[in-house]
């Protein structure tokens, strides 16, 4: 009887421990995965950038003289021709300078005439003393003095002639300054900007002031974009680019890459390059200075296998999934093997394929181009229609140890007394 009682006691203790574990122990619910199918379709690799719309050729019109703006003959959006007057600077001060330079020229010419007359007189004196020297009516010293005076008169004539040239140059400079008071358009185009008003004083002492900005042809525009150094490798002349502007929502404009400039742009240690996109603007809808959101097609492939990018980032929870690939080979401790495709070396990545019984199997794949949401699969380890895991369903998961089944842990009902 004692033996039977001992057995009953052991069974009772075992049942108690089992019940405790059952109700209070950790119970693990099956993990459910979010899945997607391997599809075949188009993958377009696009580089996005922001740029500014500018005229292909724009000319800044300035002034070479300082003064007050007397009149304006062009305004915003004015169409001007080459040589047409666009502004006039008050010419009166320059006329006065020109008259002063002209009077200085007259004085220099008069000095030349006087120097020539003096030279002629010195020459006659020298001839006279040289004729009297053989008769010894004059001394040799008198001859030497006359010769010195003659040579001095010759030098003074040359000085006067140089002063005439100097005065002529001053007159020419005054004429140029007077001419520059009339500002003309150097090209035919449209005035994009006007930076002066009548009565404003402009100074050209250190730098030429910018009075007008004239666009040569607004029917041909260009987009100057800043492409990061990580994406510049896919840029080349002739590639197609599309862009949008805020002024025309829903409308996409197209252009071609005209130039990839080699000069780097470094702003706070961020290196970008200017990629110029040429655009046809025959309807003049695009305005200079507009901000363009540019998308440049780097590569495009049709009818290729592709998987969502989430599948390449997914890693199953610890303890889930098979560590062997579809060929039965273990994937633990292996580094990604580089694979060469179309001259490019790429590493092997892993996606998790769902089998018929719901288990996950690691599948190594080689990837190609990506469009941001899907990635091309180059290797033949996956087939169209295969189901792959892209994440864990948050509605499933593990029940915590302090969670009891429904009906347990409810407060006791009060007794009726």
Sequence-ordered SSE layout with sheet pairings:
Layout: H1 2-24, E1 27-28, E2 33-37, E3 39-55, E4 58-62, E5 67-72, E6 79-80, E7 85-89, H2 92-132, H3 140-180, E8 182-184, E9 189-194, E10 201-202, E11 210-215, E12 220-228, E13 240-245, E14 253-267, E15 270-280, E16 291-308, H4 309-313, E17 322-325, E18 339-341, E19 344-346, E20 348-354, E21 360-370, E22 374-377, E23 387-392, E24 398-399
Parallel strand pairs: 17-21
Antiparallel strand pairs: 1-24, 2-23, 3-12, 3-16, 4-11, 5-7, 5-10, 6-9, 7-8, 9-11, 12-15, 13-14, 13-16, 14-15, 16-22, 18-19, 20-21, 21-22
Helix pairs in contact: 2-3
Description:
With 417 residues, the chain is α+β, with helices and mostly antiparallel strands. The chain has 4 domains: 30-41 and 303-394, Beta Barrel (conserved putative lor/sdh protein from methanococcus maripaludis s2 fold); 47-56 and 217-301, Efflux pump adaptor protein, beta barrel domain (Elongation Factor Tu (Ef-tu), domain 3), CATH 2.40.30; 58-90 and 181-216, OB fold (Dihydrolipoamide Acetyltransferase, E2P), CATH 2.40.50.100; 92-180. 26% of the residues lie in helices and 38% in strands. The chain has helices at residues 2-24, 92-132, 140-180, 309-313, and strands spanning 27-28, 33-37, 39-55, 58-62, 67-72, 79-80, 85-89, 182-184, 189-194, 201-202, 210-215, 220-228, 240-245, 253-267, 270-280, 291-308, 322-325, 339-341, 344-346, 348-354, 360-370, 374-377, 387-392, 398-399. β21 (360-370) and β22 (374-377) form a beta hairpin. α2 (92-132) runs antiparallel to α3 (140-180). The two termini are 43 Å apart. Residues 326-336 and 397-417 have low confidence and may be disordered.
């Amino acid at each position: 009887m004692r033996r039977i009682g001992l057995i009953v006691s052991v069974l009772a203790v075992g049942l108690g421990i089992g019940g405790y574990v059952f109700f209070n122990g950790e119970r693990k619910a099956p993990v459910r995965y979010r899945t997607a199918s391997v599809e075949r379709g188009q993958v377009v690799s696009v580089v996005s950038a922001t740029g500014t719309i500018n005229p292909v050729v724009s000319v800044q019109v300035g002034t070479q003289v300082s003064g007050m703006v007397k009149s304006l003959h062009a305004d915003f959006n004015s169409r001007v021709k080459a040589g047409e007057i666009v502004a006039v600077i008050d010419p009166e001060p320059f006329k006065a300078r020109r008259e002063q330079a002209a009077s200085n020229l007259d004085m220099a010419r008069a000095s030349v005439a006087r120097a020539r007359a003096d030279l002629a007189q010195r020459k006659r004196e020298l001839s006279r003393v040289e004729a009297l020297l053989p008769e010894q009516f004059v001394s040799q010293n008198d001859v030497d003095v006359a010769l010195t005076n003659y040579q001095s008169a010759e030098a003074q004539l040359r000085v006067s002639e140089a002063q005439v040239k100097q005065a002529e140059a001053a007159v020419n400079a005054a004429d140029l300054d007077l001419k520059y008071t009339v500002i003309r358009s150097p090209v035919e185009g449209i005035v994009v900007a006007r930076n002066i008003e009548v009565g404003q004083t402009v100074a050209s002492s250190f730098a030429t002031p910018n009075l007008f900005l004239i666009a040569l042809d607004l029917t041909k525009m260009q987009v100057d974009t800043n492409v990061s150094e990580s994406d510049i490798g896919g840029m080349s002349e002739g590639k197609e680019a599309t862009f949008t502007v805020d002024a025309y929502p829903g409308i996409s404009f197209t252009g071609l890459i005209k130039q990839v400039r080699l000069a780097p742009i470094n702003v706070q240690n961020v290196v970008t390059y200017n990629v110029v996109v040429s655009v046809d603007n025959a309807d003049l809808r695009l305005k200079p200075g507009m901000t363009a959101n540019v998308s440049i097609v780097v590569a495009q492939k049709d009818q290729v296998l592709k998987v969502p990018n989430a599948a390449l980032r997914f890693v199953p929870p610890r303890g889930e999934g098979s560590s062997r690939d579809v060929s039965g080979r273990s994937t633990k401790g292996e580094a990604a093997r580089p694979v060469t495709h179309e001259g490019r070396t790429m590493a092997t990545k892993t996606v998790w394929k769902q089998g018929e019984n719901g288990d996950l199997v690691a599948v190594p794949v080689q990837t190609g181009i990506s469009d941001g949401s899907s990635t091309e699969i180059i290797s033949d380890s996956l087939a169209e229609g295969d189901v792959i895991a892209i994440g864990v369903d948050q509605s499933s998961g593990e029940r915590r140890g302090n969670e009891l089944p429904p009906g347990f842990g409810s407060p006791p009902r009060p007794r009726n007394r």
